[in-house]
Design goal:
The protein is of the alpha+beta class and 261 residues long. Helix content is 31%, strand content 22%.
Length: 261
C-alpha cells in the first residue's frame, strides 16, 4: 500500500495517528473516549445526534433507532464538531444536517459531513479497495459492508474516487433530490430533474416496491441532459432507500469511433 501521509485530510491524519491501516481498526467509540467524549446510544426525537459540551469534556448522543451505518456517520459527524468546532459549543443535528452528499458545501454542518466521511471511509484505505472496480450499487454495498457504513455514504465515496465518468442520482417521485459526479464526468452534462417512466427507478418510486435492480444498459438521455446525450448509453442500477427515495448509479458508456464521452 503506497501511502503519503503528507496528503492526508485532517480526519485521515487522526486515523493514521491511531495506527489505522485496515477498516476494522476504525473504532469511533475509542476515538471519542480518547478525545474526552462519552458516547450514548438512545432514542432521540427530532434529531439524529447531539453534542453537549461541558468544558473540556463532551457527551455525544446518537439515535439508536437508525441503522448501524447511519449511526456511525452521525457519531463521526458529532466527533467532527467536537474536534474541529468545540469553540462553538453544543450541537443538535437533524437528519438533513447529517449526510455525505452535502460534504462540499461551505457551512459548518457540511464541513462536519466532509470530516465524517473521511473518518469512516478514509481515502487512503478506500482507494486501494476500489482500484479497478466499476461504479455500481453492488460494489457500493460491498464497500459499505467492509467499512460498516451506509450504502449512500459508500456510493458517494465510490463515485468521488472513480476515474471513469460516473454519477449518482437520488430522486423522489417529483424531483432530483441531490446528485454526485466523478471528476471526469462531462461538465456540460446534467442529471434529469425527474425520473423517466421507462427506468427501473421510476417503477420502484411509484410501486413502492423493488430490491436493487441489475446493472442495465440504456439510453443516456433517460438520465442525463446535455450535448448529443441521445447518442450515448449509460449503465444504470437503482435501489429504493428506506425513506422511499430512489438511488441510482450511472456509468457513461464509451462511444465507438473518434467521439469522446
Amino acid at each position: 500500500m503506497n501511502i503519503d501521509p503528507e496528503r492526508f485530510s485532517p480526519a485521515e491524519r487522526l486515523l493514521w495517528g491511531y495506527g489505522v491501516i485496515d477498516p476494522s481498526h476504525i473504532n469511533l467509540e475509542g476515538i471519542a473516549h480518547d478525545q474526552n467524549a462519552q458516547v450514548i446510544y438512545r432514542p432521540l426525537g427530532g434529531c439524529e445526534a447531539r453534542l453537549v459540551v461541558f468544558g473540556d469534556k463532551a457527551v455525544i448522543s446518537v439515535n439508536n433507532g437508525s441503522p448501524e451505518g447511519r449511526q456511525r456517520f452521525s457519531l463521526a459527524h458529532e466527533l467532527a464538531h467536537w474536534i474541529c468546532d468545540r469553540h462553538a459549543g453544543s450541537f443538535m443535528c437533524a437528519q438533513e444536517d447529517i449526510g455525505p452528499q452535502n460534504a462540499e458545501a461551505r457551512t459548518m454542518e457540511a464541513e462536519a459531513n466532509g470530516f465524517a466521511s473521511q473518518l469512516i471511509l478514509p481515502s487512503y484505505l478506500v482507494d486501494p479497495w476500489v482500484a479497478g472496480k466499476m461504479v455500481s450499487l453492488e460494489v457500493a454495498a460491498t464497500l459499505a459492508h467492509e467499512f460498516r457504513t451506509s450504502l449512500t455514504a459508500s456510493a458517494i465515496k465510490l463515485v468521488k474516487r472513480a476515474s471513469e465518468p460516473a454519477a449518482l442520482a437520488c430522486h423522489d417521485q417529483k424531483k432530483l433530490l441531490w446528485h454526485q459526479r466523478s471528476a471526469s464526468f462531462p461538465y456540460d452534462f446534467y442529471l434529469v430533474k425527474q425520473l423517466h417512466q421507462e427506468t427501473e427507478g421510476f417503477t420502484m418510486a411509484f410501486s413502492g416496491k423493488g430490491s436493487m435492480s441489475k446493472v442495465k444498459k440504456e439510453p443516456a438521455n433517460r438520465w442525463i441532459n446535455g450535448p448529443n446525450t441521445y447518442r450515448l448509453e449509460v449503465q444504470s442500477q437503482s435501489i429504493r432507500l428506506p425513506d422511499g427515495a430512489i438511488l441510482t448509479s450511472l456509468n457513461l458508456v464509451k462511444e465507438t469511433g473518434k467521439r469522446r464521452y
